[in-house]
């Protein structure tokens, strides 16, 4: 009979291989030339994403816990560190697109080298060491899933800057057609004392989802679906980008400086609005959720609509008990890779998970009694708890198993290149 520790080793290896192969499937649709450029300072080349994820396993699992491990290349510790100051120096983030060497083939070899070493360590190390590394491997796999989504976000932005026409990430994706938009309705949430944060009995969570604590939430109401592209087009047509009374001061000056007049990737043609998608540029569908808007735009739209954004605690209170969904990033040819219109027959709250990251009105701050994890992995989230806003829900390119009601995504309020959308809220 298989022992518990033997089953844990097998399950860890199976999950490791599945997540790693999903990264390879996502990036296999790109040429080597696609994987090298960097389209903006806060984005990263696909090749760098592919190399940084094995760097994490090498640095935090293999080097400390496998005495016989030989690094693939000593240069990689510097080239593919992201922001871990405790680990050592790193290549500047804004210059990652200059790394023409190592090549894409070299990075593939690095990934294979680390894969072999991790599987071997899981199979042959003693039980005490395996117990220590299993938690780190799980963290590394969720970290890699974050980079799967980031890689898709970054390559979409790269394609938007391509001067050579209308590049397609894939050909022959699902056929999209406009549907009837369900009427915007409201769901009343009673509020009261609400438990917020990760329940330790529910599996993995990042440190910023802890500790679970109680928050007093007043009665409120929340929209039964995401804001649609058609509704956002009405905001544009009503001069939404030209009315300073709708905007936060920083947002107004950012929109003016950056010449915003629509969501990122939207363009106006003689036939109406079009948007860049992973299947190329196509007409914007009125019923689909609007995405690629900043917090500033979401806040301005909510004010225009006579509503507001939910706090992250209100959002989590509304989402409590709802079933989460996943995206099929391991089947990249059939996944929509774009938010879908709400189902008109679906009662209650729709689209809470897996269509768009929903901006909240909450600044990204630590929960009460939050403690930084010891060692370099403690830098994972805490150093970003300044100048960021929280998003909830998961997007159309968030991997399966990486969506839950307690997940706290975060971006600066001006950011638009992620799949960020809007859900209105209001006072009861």
Describe it for me?
The structure is a single chain. With 428 residues, this protein is of the alpha+beta class. The chain has two domains: 4-160, Four Helix Bundle (Hemerythrin (Met), subunit A) (Up-down Bundle), CATH 1.20.120; 186-427, paralog of FGE (formylglycine-generating enzyme) (Alpha-Beta Complex), CATH 3.90.1580. It has helices spanning 4-27, 46-65, 76-79, 104-124, 127-160, 229-237, 249-258, 295-304, 312-319, and strands spanning 186-189, 192-196, 213-217, 220-223, 266-269, 272-277, 280-283, 308-309, 357-363, 389-392, 409-411, 420-421, 424-427. A four-stranded antiparallel β-sheet has the order 1-4-13-8. Strands 11-10-9-12 form a four-stranded mixed β-sheet. A hairpin with a 2-residue loop joins strand 5 (266-269) and strand 6 (272-277). Helix 1 (4-27) runs antiparallel to helix 4 (104-124), helix 2 (46-65) runs parallel beside helix 4 (104-124) and helix 2 runs antiparallel to helix 5 (127-160). The model has no long low-confidence stretch (mean pLDDT 94).
């Amino acid at each position: 009979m298989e022992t518990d520790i033997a089953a844990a080793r097998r399950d860890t290896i199976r999950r490791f291989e599945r997540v790693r192969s999903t990264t390879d499937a996502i990036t296999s649709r790109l040429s080597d030339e696609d994987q090298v450029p960097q389209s903006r300072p806060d984005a990263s080349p696909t090749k760098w994403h592919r190399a940084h994820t094995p760097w994490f396993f090498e640095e935090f699992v293999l080097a400390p816990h496998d005495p016989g491990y030989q690094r693939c290349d000593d240069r990689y510790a510097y080239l593919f560190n992201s922001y871990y100051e405790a680990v050592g120096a790193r290549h500047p983030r804004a210059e990652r697109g200059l790394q023409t060497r190592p090549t894409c083939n070299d990075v593939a070899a690095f990934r294979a080298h680390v894969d072999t070493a991790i599987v071997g360590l899981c199979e042959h190390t003693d039980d005490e060491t395996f117990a220590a590394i299993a938690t780190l491997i799980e963290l590394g796999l969720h970290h890699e899933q974050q980079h799967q989504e980031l890689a898709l976000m970054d390559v979409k932005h790269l394609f938007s800057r391509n001067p050579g026409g209308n590049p397609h990430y894939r050909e022959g994706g699902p056929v999209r057609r406009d549907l009837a938009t369900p009427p915007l309705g409201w769901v009343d949430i009673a509020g009261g004392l609400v438990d917020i944060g990760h329940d330790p009995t529910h599996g993995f969570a990042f440190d910023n989802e802890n500790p679970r604590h109680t928050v007093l939430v007043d009665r409120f109401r929340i929209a039964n679906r995401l804001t649609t592209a058609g509704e956002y087009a009405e905001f544009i047509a009503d001069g939404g980008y030209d009315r300073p009374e709708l905007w936060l001061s920083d947002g107004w000056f950012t929109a003016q400086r950056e010449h915003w007049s629509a969501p990122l990737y939207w363009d106006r043609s003689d036939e109406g609005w079009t948007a860049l998608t992973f299947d190329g540029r196509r007409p914007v569908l009125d019923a689909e959720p609007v995405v690629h808007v900043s917090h500033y735009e979401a806040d301005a739209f909510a004010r225009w609509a006579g509503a507001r954004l939910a706090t992250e605690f209100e959002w989590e209170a509304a989402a409590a008990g709802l079933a989460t969904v996943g995206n099929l990033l391991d089947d990249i040819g059939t996944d929509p890779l774009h938010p879908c219109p709400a189902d008109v027959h679906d009662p209650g709250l729709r689209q809470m998970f897996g269509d768009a990251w929903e901006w909240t009105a909450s600044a990204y701050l630590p929960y009460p009694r939050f403690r930084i994890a010891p060692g370099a992995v403690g830098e994972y989230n805490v150093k970003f708890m300044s100048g960021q806003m929280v998003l909830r829900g998961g997007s159309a390119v968030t991997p399966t198993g990486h969506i839950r009601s307690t997940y706290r995504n975060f971006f600066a309020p001006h950011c638009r290149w992620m799949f960020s959308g809007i859900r209105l809220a209001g006072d009861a």
